[in-house]
Amino acid sequence: MNTPPPVLESPEAVLTTLGRDGKRRWMYPTPSKGSKYRARQVLGWALIAFFVGLPWVKIGGRPAILLDIAAREFTFFGLTLHPTDTLLLMVFLLTVLLSVFFVTALFGRVWCGWGCPQTVYLEFVYRPIERLIEGKEGARRKLDQGPWTREKMIRKGLKYGVFLLISLFLAHTFVAYFVGWERLLEWMGKSPAEAPGYFVMMILTTALVYFDFGFFREQMCTITCPYARFQSVLMDRNSLIVSYDPNRGEPRGTARARKQAGPLNLEDGTVSFGDCVDCGACVRTCPTGIDIREGLQMECVACTQCIDACNEIMDAVDKPRGLIRFTSENALDQKPTRVARPRVLAYGVILVLLSATFVGLVINRGPLEVDLARASGTTYQITNDGDVANRLRFRLRNRTAEEVHAEVRVVSPEAASVQVVGQHPILLPAGDPVRIEVWITMPPEEMPSGGMPLTLELVVDGEVWATPSIGLMGPQ
Ligand code: SF4
Ligand code: SF4
Q1: pLDDT category, 350, cuts 50, 70, 90?
Q2: 297: pLDDT confidence band, cut at 50, 70 and 90?
Q3: How confident is residue 320, by pLDDT bands cut at 50, 70 and 90?
Q4: How far apart are the CA of 313 and the centre of ligand 2, in A?
Q5: Which pLDDT does position 117 carry in this prediction?
Q6: Which of 161, 192, 217 is the last residue before a domain boundary?
Q7: Radius of gyration over every alpha carbon of the chain, rounded to an integer in angstroms
Q8: 20 to 30 A Cα–Cα from 396, which one of 204, 282, 366, 380?
Q9: Residue 43 lies inside a defined structural domain of this protein
Q10: Residue 166 maps to a domain
């Protein structure tokens, strides 16, 4: 008889979400509905409303946020960036990155537990639906471990059916940030043959959302997310973390252990229990399955569920709340917590500088993007009238939401005259680049020693939108 191969097991637990044989350990966290849970719930629903509603909001005729990759246009609350706005885009991304550094140094992983869509949707949309359909944690565990009965098939089918519908809606909302709702609604009214790109994109996005919230869940935080990996280098002993106070809690002991130990004998120190009654409520409520009493761990997403759970137990055993609390490692060691420290100050100063640079760049950006150059491969020509003519090329982009007409005029030298090739005033549609050519002619007697600077102006409705300059060429 063939003996089955031995199951390889790790000598110690590597991840709480994996068994020692490497198989997935499904989490059944018990919600702890304390004050922090309620605050997260309010914030979570506000964020969901914001995420779902934002693509419908328009500012200046454009969606509040539109990341149009195909058109290479990125709109944020009335500010539209193009690939030529590299500096602005770079400063913006650096500002976002520094904000993450700054917030993490001060408040640890508060983003993960309170603001990240992964946590918000999982804890306040998918898990409540799961509880509603399959019951509480014990019932769900039993259902999962039990045979495939008719009831199990109905409950599982219903749950995953609802998950699929929600994932479809979230995927459409997500894609609306990239294409806008108008285009999305238009595609939705077409058949897959007419809009194959839309159908492929929606199937893939829905499948990813469905897989993430239906199956992958907390593994996104513990295995995949890069922020979890580098957060430890952003924090120090003064950063706020969710932590168990071992000075107060240890040695832990269950009610039975305390009863068996008999009355406390503090005189000779033989029996002395801390406040932790070893009830395990903090572990049962943890969505990543860790025991916070073992110290700060990479898997902790600072959701504060264990704080609520432990506070409830402390109330029940008539002890002060806060055995698990938001605190710093220094505070736990009875040392002062310093808010203003070199790393926070450095992040803060750089953040202020970057924000000021960003605001300065936006203010001085102007409504028109202008690129003026000499027509490629040209120097100058002499016209039949004997004037010196330079051929220049404009690349213009109207950054506003309205179509406008722009006139090109000469500012200096006064003797120069401009002639636009094609329609003048130039039609500039909102957002799209326009290329035009202009001829600048100068009487030769006004052109000293081979060349001189030229300044033009682009005028829209009597208002000067840009004053580009370039060097004119002429005979020596
Ligand atoms: S240890 Fe506490 S704060 Fe951290 S993930 Fe678990 S329940 Fe949330
Ligand atoms: S919930 Fe509080 S009392 Fe219960 S095991 Fe956790 S730390 Fe100890």
Answers
A1: very high
A2: confident
A3: very high
A4: 7
A5: 94
A6: 217
A7: 33
A8: 380
A9: yes
A10: yes
User: Sign (positive/negative) of CA torsion 291, 296, 300, 301?
Assistant: positive
Alpha carbon of residue 298 to chain centroid: 20
Report the nearest-CA residue for atom 4 of ligand 2.
279
Q: What's the CA gap between 325 and 275, in Å, rounded?
A: 14
Distance, CA 280 to ligand 2 centroid (Å)?
6
Domain termination residue (choose one: 166, 195, 217): 217
Q: Domain holding 452: CATH number? A: 2.60.40.10
Q: Is residue 454 part of a domain?
A: yes
Beta carbon of 281 within 6 Å of any ligand 1 atom: no
Which residue, judged by its Cα, is nearest atom 5 of ligand 1? 300
Residue 244 bridge partners (DSSP): 324
Question: Is there an atom of ligand 1 within 6 Å of 302 CB?
Answer: yes
User: Quick check: is 236 in a domain?
Assistant: no
Ligand with an atom nearest the CA of residue 321: 2
What secondary structure does DSSP assign to 95-108, as a single string? HHHHHHHHHHHHHT
Q: Taking each helix axis as running N to C, give the angle between helix 137-145 and helix 127-134, from 0 to 180 degrees, rounded to the nearest 10.
A: 70
* pLDDT for the residue numbered 6: 58
Range of the domain at 63: 35-84+116-217
Peptide bond into 425 cis (omega under 30): yes
**Is residue 44 a contact partner of residue 124, using CB atoms and an 8 Å limit?**
yes
CA atoms within 13 A on the CB side of 101: 16
Nearest CA to ligand 2 atom 8: 276
- 417-459 confidence digits (pLDDT tens): 999 999 989 999 887 789 999 999 999 888 877 788 999 999 9
Residue 64: closest CA among 47, 52, 72:
52
Count of domains in the chain? 2
Predicted pLDDT of residue 43? 97
pTM to 2 decimal places = 0.81
